[in-house]
Fold this protein.
Amino acid sequence: MKSKNLKHEKITRKWGGKTTQEEFETRISKWIEQFEENEKEFVCYFLHHFKYFTLRAIKDRAVDLFKLFEEKSMLNLDEVIFIPAYKELGVGFSDTFFNDFWYVNNLYDYAEKNIYDILSENIVFEKVVVVDDYSGSGKTIERTIRRCIEKNSKMKDSNFYILTLQTSNLARENLEKFSNDEGLDINIITLKSEKKAFENGEIFSNEKLKEIKNRYLNICDCKKINKDYKLGFSETEALLSFEYNTPNNTLGLFWSSSKDYEALFKRYKKKKTSLNQIRKDVSKRRKERESNFIKKYEENEQYVYLMGYLVQKGKKFNYKEAIKKFGMNEIQLDEAMNYLSKNDYVMYKSGKLVVTDKLREYIKLSKVKTLEIKLEETDNPSQKDNIGKCNHVPKKFGEKFKGHNN
């Protein structure tokens, strides 16, 4: 039964039930009063094309999305792992949808938030499903996939499925380009593909499109909307909001508030807190460590086979055997051992060579693809990590030592 008091019912009835409609009746009425009389009908016209998801609607769509995934992928659940979009530290609103998704679809045993720690243990998943509520530019999804590959390069051969409630055509194009450029297998499954608001035929006809867009931008200028968000992040021109937050890809007039203007839809504003500063500091230090490790790995690369051999042999390392094993001469081996000693990878005790914990840790973290070592013989039994068996060592090891004289 219609309520005579709901002036904006034609807009809000597709957004939710009576409670939602009544809430937005007040919010829209208050919001609309901030515009000039000749602007009110114009800005309201966008709302007729706006997609708003209540928490209840999000759960319902999560079920629909999973059914669509089953139909299109034809995969057995035991073959896949579901993960959220990547966020280095803290929490994100995408987590809200991810939690709803695995919960309503009973996927507890197939979902994992901390996949990056698992990938760091050299475990590979052949089929990975990245779950997100919305993809506007595709950058978050791309960052998620890149992070998986950074943690384990073998993931480059995996199949990635992208599940979203809604995806912009811009995001689809960017992800398809990313897939082609990197040689990745990426499949996009979404309930709705979205054009730009000012794209021809989406809302407005081509004849008046330029005029209408300029009129919108002029209103944004009057309301002092951030220039980077007038058309949404990456100029996505989305018309979308969730009850818990609004993507910054949405047209800025509807979510970006300013000093004298209060936007209609919610957009979480980051606050300067001590925890946020801690996150930034931790993130910076982590990136520095990773950068330093990569740099050090490049320096050590020419010695890596010998380093692995040293870890394997431990106190039983023998110069003559090493020379024979790697096809080196004594000068080359001496120079290599001097380098490793100088960098604290080996040391000498009572005239015997001893492998340091630094070298063991380096071999564990480097994950050298052609070198898998089982620590069967070490001077420290507690360090007997099962890293595998050494399958391949180059016969002409001397060629690995760039810059050495024969």
About this structure: Confidence is low (pLDDT under 50) at residues 293-299, 367-406. Strands lie at 51-53, 80-84, 127-135, 159-168, 185-190, 193-194, 240-242, 346-349, 352-355.
